[in-house]
Amino acid sequence: MPKTVQVIKKPVLNVMGLLSLMGNKQVYSSGSVDGKVISNDSDVGILATIQSTTDSPNSFEMSVLVVNSADTSNVTGQDNIKITIKIQENVKDLVYSVYLIDNYHGNPYHNWTTFGKPVFPSFEQLETMRNNQEPVRIEGPKLVKSNQAIYNFVLQKPGVLLLHMCNKATSSPDQVTGLRALVIGPDDVLLVWKDSCVHSRCLKTYQVEKSDSSEGLFMQVNQFDLIFTTFVFSKKEYIHGYYRVRAVDYWSRVGEFSLPIEVKQQKITSY
Fold first, then answer.
1. From the centroid of its chain, how far is CA 21?
2. What's the pTM value of the predicted model, to 2 decimals?
3. What is the pLDDT of residues 73-123, one digit of tens each?
4. Residue 215: which residues within 8 A CB-CB, separation 6 or more?
5. Which helix (H) or strand (E) holds 130?
6. Which residues contact 55 (CB under 8 A, 6 or more apart)?
7. Helix (H) or strand (E) holding 14
8. Element (H or E) spanning 18, and its range?
């Protein structure tokens, strides 16, 4: 019997997270699948938005979401997607990143089935599953070289792809706030923080660091990029210590670390 309840993200949760990167204004979008224009009865859907704000009139942010799904049928396969993007404004220092979720990327269920669907996965199996529970950045951040560009992708069915564009802000991300911890097992701690003061959605990752003491040397503990505000750190008999988090944007500029918090090892009783 397992000692604790484990926390593993489902792909649908990350799809909701990618939706949070969509803008507040829909714009016209066009694309093609295997040379044919995307239509209403196609398995492929596309939605393009921009983030319209009066706070930073010189900022530009565009998100293009592509979905390839045959609804509830078990039809699989892949399609060649071509997206044409035309930007009317003269935007400088514009970069893009591409995130992917499909049966193999950002899907811990695939790992679980590979392991033989164990009822109680081992510590190492859970770690492997967590390493594949985030959206995978398959491209970028890369410089956008033209205001009119064509992007080609091969998208599995089912699959979700997000192309995210941003121009360079005048300053680096601000401080991460509200860091808190929940010990969910003898070797597992769930870290949650707030991004309301970061003032940027164009983030390459959050860096989670840990130290054995408040005055000691901090070392990064997340082995993969995080674009959402949660992280489970698992290490046998090693979760005690101090944690802090900071944001890193697409241009590798870092924000200020959050205030560190202490996490104490807890003994979990087996039943």
1. 10
2. 0.89
3. 777 888 888 888 888 777 788 899 999 999 999 999 999 999 999 988 988
4. none
5. helix 123-130
6. none
7. helix 11-19
8. helix 11-19
